[in-house]
Amino acid sequence: MGLFPFAAAETAAGRTDELPEYKEMAYDYENNRLKKKAGKYYLVTRNEALKVWIYKALKTKRFVYQAYSHKYGTEVDNVIGVSGDKGILESEIRRYVTETVMVNPYIQELSGFSYDWKTKSFCVVTFDVTTVYDRFTWSSEVYVT
Predict the structure, then answer these.
(1) Are 16 and 38 in contact (CB under 8 A)?
(2) Residue-wise over 45-80: b if at least 16 C-beta within 10 A, else e?
(3) Does the predicted TM-score (pTM) go above 0.90?
(4) pLDDT at 1
């Protein structure tokens, strides 16, 4: 059995069998809660579900909650107190975001990282996500102090 039991095993040609369609509960990012439709929670699929997963993974501290595997969550808070050199900070932010997001077998690549420094201690990192379904752009806030 592999690390991700829901993922199909590799074939001799090095390709994987098709993964089941990815699903998550719909999420209201602004109010930090699950969405309801007609009073009931509902599922989203494919890239919309992966966006929810990325959002939650980048907001969850790694190694803190027993409910999650040690592979889930982020350590991006470790950039707090790192050198004030933006090049070093951006490199570390990219590394932590990549380590967080690439554990999901539905995500194939992260690229096109850009950093919008709102203040000396706060930036918005934006990157392209290539999944087994398609490609989309994602942004996440990072505090460095």
Answers:
(1) no
(2) ebbbbbbbbbbebbeeebeeeeeeeeebbbebeebe
(3) no
(4) 34
